[in-house]
């Protein structure tokens, strides 16, 4: 049985995607507008990336900065167009004004995705009660991953939470895989891997030149090498 850790890389366009695949990424998260922490890309961008690489692609469903769902029916329409273009995996997550999960919005989109696999993203790190959020989402079709740093402040602040949640694997609400991302550094990996965490997400770390520069295949390969040694 393979113990290879999953490495997911943020891609903004086909150039990013090709470089990430060359560096050894296992999956891509497709977004636009990182100034707003990643919004839904266009169908055209998805199609160009799909044509350029053969990696699994998780497409962000997020209309604006922040974690409010906004126009849910508009998102439903966007999700439908992306699915028609061939998208099969997604990323989403919405909170209400009190920091609880916006269950109505999440359930509406999960229903439209009709079994497609999806990640609940770092909205969990802004939730008033992480455990309550997980239990509220328990059993939703397609939910197979939580992208989290353990804290809104990043992995440095959230490390204890990540390790504690890894230890609850298999409990109700804790079956989905934990994908660690948000201020993640290479020196975090040994401890996280030792705790059994096996999925990691990088964005800026794949772009030594900053967000105005493309993904570096060399940078991604460095992460791949360290994960494979671990």
Automatic annotation (TrEMBL):
Listed transmembrane segments: none
PANTHER family: COPPER HOMEOSTASIS PROTEIN CUTC, COPPER HOMEOSTASIS PROTEIN CUTC HOMOLOG
Similarity comment: Belongs to the CutC family.
Name by which UniProt lists this protein: Copper homeostasis protein cutC homolog
Organism of derivation: Streptomyces cinereospinus
């Amino acid at each position: 049985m393979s113990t290879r850790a999953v490495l997911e890389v943020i891609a903004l366009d086909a150039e990013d995607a090709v470089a990430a695949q060359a560096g050894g990424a296992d999956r891509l998260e497709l977004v636009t507008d990182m100034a707003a922490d990643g919004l839904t890309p266009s169908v055209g961008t998805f199609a160009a990336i799909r044509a350029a690489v053969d990696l699994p692609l998780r497409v962000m469903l997020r209309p604006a900065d922040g974690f409010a769902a906004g126009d849910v029916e508009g998102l439903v329409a966007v999700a439908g167009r992306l699915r028609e273009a061939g998208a099969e995996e997604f990323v989403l997550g919405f909170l209400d004004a009190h920091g609880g999960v916006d269950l109505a919005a999440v359930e509406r989109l999960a229903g439209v995705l009709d079994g497609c696999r999806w990640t609940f993203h770092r909205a969990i790190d802004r939730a008033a009660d992480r455990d309550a959020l997980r239990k509220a989402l328990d059993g939703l079709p397609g939910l197979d991953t939580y992208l989290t740093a353990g804290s809104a402040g990043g992995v440095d602040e959230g490390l204890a939470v990540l390790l504690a949640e890894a230890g609850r694997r298999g409990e109700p609400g804790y079956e989905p895989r934990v994908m660690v991302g948000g201020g993640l550094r290479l020196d975090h990996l040994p401890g996280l891997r030792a705790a059994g965490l096996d999925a990691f997400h990088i964005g800026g770390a794949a772009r030594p030149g900053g967000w105005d520069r493309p993904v570096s295949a060399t940078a991604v390969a460095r992460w791949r090498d360290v994960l494979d040694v671990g």
